[in-house]
Amino acid sequence: MQNWPIVLGDKIPADSALNGKKVWLGDINRAVAHPELFLSEAKGHASVYSAPVATAPAAAAGPKRIVAVTACPTGVAHTFMAAEAIETEAKKRGWWVKVETRGSVGAGNAITPEEVAEADLVIVAADIEVDLAKFAVSPCTVRLPAWR
């Protein structure tokens, strides 16, 4: 007895588990209305399946651009430790990065609306409330959990 997958629908899904197996793509209405005829057609016309080769998504031109905001109540240790960690990792990966630091003395290294608009990613690492209005145009904002 030979087994072969029958897929009911509009297209065979990309599935490497089907590679090398005879597969038949059929219409569910036809299968229900004429099951014997449907199975006979499937047996006679099933073809060997080969999953499409996945291609890597095209890399965006140039390095990733990241803007980040770090903040803590006093604006000293955690603010600058987080900023340094983000900058170090981004530079290690060859990415452009700018980190705005916020604390009791205000904001340092302020991020411009143009930098936000050009960013691929916004990171917010804050232990205090941070107004995120200027980041609303960014397609991807990640808010890291508080340090508490």
UniProtKB/TrEMBL annotation:
CDD domains: PTS_IIB_fructose. GO terms for molecular function: protein-N(PI)-phosphohistidine-fructose phosphotransferase system transporter activity; protein-phosphocysteine-sugar phosphotransferase activity. Keywords: Phosphoprotein, Phosphotransferase system, Sugar transport, Transferase, Transport. SUPFAM superfamilies: PTS system IIB component-like (SSF52794). Gene3D superfamilies: 3.40.50.2300. GO terms for cellular component: plasma membrane. GO terms for biological process: phosphoenolpyruvate-dependent sugar phosphotransferase system. It comes from the Bacteria. The keyword Phosphoprotein applies. InterPro entries: Bacterial_PTS_Sugar_Transport, PTS_EIIB-like_sf, PTS_EIIB_2, PTS_EIIB_2/3, PTS_IIB_fruc. Residues 66-148 form the PTS EIIB type-2 domain. It holds the Pfam family PTS_EIIB_BC_N. This is PTS system fructose-specific transporter subunit IIBC. The gene is fruA_1.
